[in-house]
Amino acid sequence: MKNILMLAFMFFFLTIPSVVQGEEYNKKSLQDDLYNVTNDVTQEQHLKHFLLNLINKEIILATREYYKDQNISGMAFDWEKNYNVVEVTEPQVTGENTEYPFIVKVNVIPANEKPLGTDTLTFGIIVDSHPDKPENPSIISKLLKYEHKDLPKE
Predict the structure, then answer these.
(1) From CA 115, how far away is CA 14, in angstroms rounded?
(2) Under DSSP, is residue 43 helix (H, G, I), strand (E, B) or coil?
(3) For a tag on the chain, would you pick the N or C end, based on fewer CB atoms within 10 A?
(4) Quick check: is 154 in a domain?
């Protein structure tokens, strides 16, 4: 009986360090995962803001033309909805034939004192990175499609 108690006692104390070590490993792994997810989302958000700033002038000009209202200057971006505010695709990767290497869809809510609707603007983007032609703009964008949706009635 004494041997059984001694064996159980040794077994108990030998397994505790491995359980504690496993818990510490899982905590570390979880922290790393949360760190990576948070940083990935933040980086993506920064890139989307950067892209919006690059084509902001074109967005405002397109909305002014669509609504025939030169006073439109405000834009809202609803980051909480189910759609992406900014979507970037590369037609060459998907096998589509287009003159634009990048297609950018932007979901905006233009405003002139009040929101006018939820609009999706699709731009074709050409990035000219040729150093021998510094007089050419680095980014050329063209509005390809403008879709308007009325705001839902509240």
Answers:
(1) 67
(2) helix
(3) C
(4) no
pTM of the model: 0.66
**Domain of 26, in residue numbers:** 2-149
> How do residues 8-67 score in pLDDT, each as one tens digit?
656 555 665 554 455 555 455 545 554 454 555 667 788 888 888 899 999 999 999 999
> For the stretch 69-100, what's the b/e string if a residue is b when 16 or more beta carbons lie within 10 angstroms of its beta carbon?
eeebebbeeeeeeeeebbeeeeeeeeeeeeeb
| Other Cβ atoms within 10 Å of 104 Cβ, number | 21
Label residues 17-43 b or e (16+ Cβ within 10 Å = b): eeeeeeeeeeeeeeeeeeeeeeeeeee
How many residues appear in the chain? 154
What stretches of 45-138 adopt beta strand conformation (E)?
A: 74-76, 86-89, 102-111, 118-127
How many folded domains does the chain comprise?
A: 1
